[in-house]
User: Fold these one by one.
Assistant:
Number 1:
Amino acid sequence: MKITRKAATQRRHRRIRRKVFGTPERPRLAVFRSHRHIYAQVIDDVAQHTLVSASTLDRELREAFKDIGTATREAAAVVGRSVAQRALQAGICQVVFDRGGKLYHGRVQALAEAAREAGLQF
């Protein structure tokens, strides 16, 4: 039986999560991508607590998406910069990147590169 795209993504995500674990010193930057939006959270897996987050649904970022839309690489870069700035304000400078089972390509890659440029280390 052929594996569906969703099943392949879930399989990759389980494989990644076995290896990627966020600690208080180096939390996990988790990315979730849907067809219309992208979400990023910095998570402490020990305390099971989200430290900072950003998404294309944030009220503060909505003005940036008026012209570019929410399902673009540019929107993902805005979210990446935003989550990096919020993490740095919270005193977090190093994270572990969790691409959420998605391929490191397109919007996921744009978010990661923007977060790196904004000062997060991973």
Number 2:
Amino acid sequence: MVQMNDRATTVHCTVCKKDAAQQGHSTMYTSGDCEAVNQGSSPPCKSQLCGDIGSTSRRPVMCPCEGCNKNVAISGLISHFSFEHVDLPMLAVEEEDKSHFWVSPEALPLNITRCIALLLLVDSLDTRGGSLCTQHANDSRLKSGFPILVMGARLTTGPQGAAALLWAADVDSRLRYTAEATDFSTRSLSVSYSGRTESLRANQAPPAILERGLCTVVQPAMIRELAKVSGGFDLTIQIHK
């Protein structure tokens, strides 16, 4: 099971998420209390990255979501997740924001990549009218955000069992990020990676991810320690400048 951590800067609203899925809308979260925001309530993103999706190569990428495998045009990437994967959380984040997820190791399939969330990098989050919980897929903030997928998997790395791989990927490996797995009970144990994002144009299969090394690798013994009390661990994703 993968859930939003309600102690984090991003908040999971199950009621709003259900409504969004029923209406064919995307689900999007920001920090603070959940409150629906009307279309056009936030200013469009003007950063080079957020408005620059169309300037990347026109070669489509394959959707890494389990069971999908559709080739998706770069310009249609956000729309694809908004309508084809409505259960996948979409979070608007600024640079250096920390997004938290509660991850159960058993929820990460063996040798299969699982999408955990779609982050949309924006210039700023205008929360004067209340923080966003659910937003229609035609909203300008969804269209202007720069998409970053958070993914995970388990991979057998030795006789001790399967390690957990956790990573973030954008269109062309254009960003830097930190992914950290931390125990909930004492927060004294952690494993982290800080460096370049993965590229969605590259193979997202777990063995290929491990070989390239742009991910957090949590070995079986450490998984047991991190999940000893709560049955899961806190995954923090932070996109850097």
Number 3:
Amino acid sequence: MAREATIARTTNETSIQLSFSLDGEGKAELETGVPFLTHMLDLFAKHGQFDLRVDAKGDTHIDDHHTTEDIGICLGQAIKEALGDKKGIKRYGNAFVPMDDALAQVVIDLSNRPHFEFRGEFPAAKVGTFDVELVYEFLWKLALEARMNLHVIVHYGRNTHHMIEAVFKALGRALDEATMVDPRVKGVPSTKGML
């Protein structure tokens, strides 16, 4: 069975169509209206070997907040749906990724208990026109809607772009690891018998 999902979300602020495949080739077709987010999602898909298509229209004439947040919501919902019953998955993923001066770590538990922790400080408030605080908003909504426990640690860095890039690459790699099917796992990887 294909591990993929398509999500549509329309509000007074945004209209989003998103398709996601866990077992992809790292291909991304992205029209987000938020150039820096487009760049980060492209990295996420490439390094996680996911196929991701996003067609988003939002009130970016105000700012990028609603569009960024709502794409995070849709991607989280797509991840949850694509995982199905989670039988046979590894469940946990951990990735360290360096990007020049920056080092980021992302740790994931696909536990069905949403939680988000972020440690790190970005030296700049903006990358181009993108408000850096939206990285937190995107990741928190992603974790909430995917019902994952997501820990993001930016260990160090000087360049904000590099630091965020390391986070999104690590996110892709950690999610890829957590969603891999392990033939040794019988049923769901939990002593509770469900996730």
